[in-house]
TrEMBL record:
Chain spans, region Disordered: 1-27
InterPro entries: DNA_mismatch_endonuc_vsr, Restrct_endonuc-II-like
GO terms for MF: endonuclease activity; hydrolase activity
Taxon lineage: Bacteria, Bacillati, Actinomycetota, Actinomycetes, Pseudonocardiales
Originating species: Saccharothrix variisporea
Residue ranges with Polar residues bias: 10-20
Protein name: T/G mismatch-specific endonuclease
Keywords: DNA damage, DNA repair, Endonuclease, Hydrolase, Nuclease
GO biological process: mismatch repair
Length: 148
């Protein structure tokens, strides 16, 4: 079953619309830095793939055999408890948008767990080296044993 998790577009100012349209959704600075660290640690992975083909949710980094899906979450878009902000202009729209993102993230984690996957969430403000070490540990503990 596929859910449409999009929030209807409500009017925003032209400046806000222009600024938000320039936000990268993939290959952000933190994503690239994290992937470099993961590669440096000897990990190989796929980028921007659906861990479960039937679920229309794409992970930023995927470790297929270990069934680990990594999501790099932006502090604004995903409501970081440390750095997330609630805009004052068009506040109902943005609160709904961010809370919908959070609910979708929780649902994604739940669906992946049901299918035997581990979701690892990395905030954009996290140190890439620290996050990569955490991911390396998760992948190493879940990687299937090598055949002789």
């Amino acid at each position: 079953m596929v859910h449409d998790d999009r929030v209807p577009n409500l009017p925003t100012t032209a400046d806000t619309s222009a600024r938000m349209s320039k936000q990268r959704s993939r290959d952000t600075g933190i994503e690239v830095a994290l992937r470099k660290e993961l590669h440096r640690l000897g990990l190989r992975y796929r980028v921007h793939q659906r861990p479960i083909k039937a679920v229309r949710r794409e992970a930023d980094v995927v470790f297929g055999p270990a069934k680990v899906a990594v999501f790099v979450d932006g502090c604004f878009w995903h409501g970081c408890p440390d750095h997330g902000t609630w805009p004052k202009r068009n506040s109902d729209f943005w609160r709904t948008k961010i809370e919908t993102n959070q609910a979708r993230d929780a649902n994604t984690d739940h669906l992946l767990a049901e299918a035997g996957w581990l979701s690892v969430r990395v905030w954009e403000h996290e140190d890439p080296t620290t996050a990569a070490t955490r991911i390396h540990t998760a992948v190493a503990t879940r990687r299937p044993p090598k055949r002789p």
